[in-house]
């Protein structure tokens, strides 16, 4: 059974569907930060220093851990960017 088909079947369960969506949204944040950091040519440590945080915090966000909007905004500003949120 292909993973896409399995996921589609499992999403019929409302609890699974909600958790799958939540995890996907965290992953999107993680990937967005990683790409922005790489595009800026910064290491996790360099970005952490600019954002007045720790390298471990940057790593946790890039793994998909929860993070506050304030922290994300601070990191975005450290790269000369703005934090933007969309509801699709």
From TrEMBL:
It comes from Lapidilactobacillus mulanensis. It comes from the Bacteria. CDD domains: HTH_XRE (cd00093). Residues 33-86 form the HTH cro/C1-type domain. It holds the Pfam family HTH_3. This is Helix-turn-helix domain-containing protein. PROSITE patterns: HTH_CROC1 (PS50943). InterPro entries: Cro/C1-type_HTH (IPR001387), Lambda_DNA-bd_dom_sf (IPR010982).
């Amino acid at each position: 059974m292909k993973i896409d088909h399995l996921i589609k079947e499992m999403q019929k369960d409302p609890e699974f569907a909600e958790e799958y969506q939540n995890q996907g949204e965290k992953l999107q944040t993680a990937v967005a930060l990683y790409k922005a950091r790489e595009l800026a040519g910064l290491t996790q440590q360099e970005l952490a220093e600019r954002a007045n945080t720790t390298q471990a915090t940057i790593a946790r966000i890039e793994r998909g851990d929860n993070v506050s909007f304030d922290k994300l905004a601070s990191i975005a500003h450290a790269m000369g960017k703005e934090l933007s949120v969309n509801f699709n």
